[in-house]
């Protein structure tokens, strides 16, 4: 008799338990109020632990920001971030002088590699109504051979991310956004060039799943060494083969076989992370992920001496103008421009 596909089920909080090659996954969901003239909240910040505000109060957090919510200037080395914004906006700034505003379905793929500083701020661009934000940020490890690759980032714009629809016309359906890897013969956009997701040995697949009530969806068979975790963050009940799982749980799946998902009575939203483990030591200290303690110590020394290129911005928490136009400017001087996109558009 084949073994059940569920290995374990974990409760979801702000940080989600991940498996190799993934290092970290955070789910940000903040119901920010109207914005003020600085693109911060038009609300009192009294009583908040500014600089380290991770307590959900009135439905939102400032994180490390003291004027605009988000994460001011900070360093990374040795891994990648994949930031998937379902709703709201993120303003990117980095030590190479690159910048951008992205959101409402966009994905930023950033390789920290040999070392970079960046800021990730959440601008509250609307002053006439609330500014809800929802995003996933995933940290994906780099193998030893690529830990010192030059820093790099690219945008996967919402309008261009492939979406696969599954189900009979007129019946319950599922929509699968293919962020990395492939699904039912549809390939994702190209990830960053040095990424484990760009290596055929990596087997990386990142999918965002939206399932109608009673929809049925099958996850394809994988290798016998694959790590695979399904994060059921919104809905009521999901059946994985014959086992019911309630929402707000991570479902750690066994490698190998096909997995049948049957949704419950209300719409469900899920994130799938899977990939082949990187079979190397992992030593992490804060924003640095290397293979040895000595490499971690060297990362701190290099950062103190070079600041990974310095910080060319006037403030540690830059925001980029007003409005909902999206853009990306790169170190080489190239620039991408995108207009506003509705939440119900490409998502």
Automatic annotation (TrEMBL):
CDD domains: cupin_pirin_N (cd02909). It holds the Pfam family Pirin_C. Residues 65-140 form the Pirin N-terminal domain. It comes from the Bacteria. Residues 314-347 are annotated as: Disordered. InterPro entries: Pirin, Pirin_C_dom, Pirin_N_dom, RmlC-like_jellyroll, RmlC_Cupin_sf. Gene3D superfamilies: Jelly Rolls (2.60.120.10). Residues 211-309 form the Pirin C-terminal domain. PANTHER family: PIRIN, PIRIN-RELATED. Belongs to the pirin family. This is Pirin family protein. The lineage of its organism: Bacteria, Bacillati, Bacillota, Clostridia, Eubacteriales.
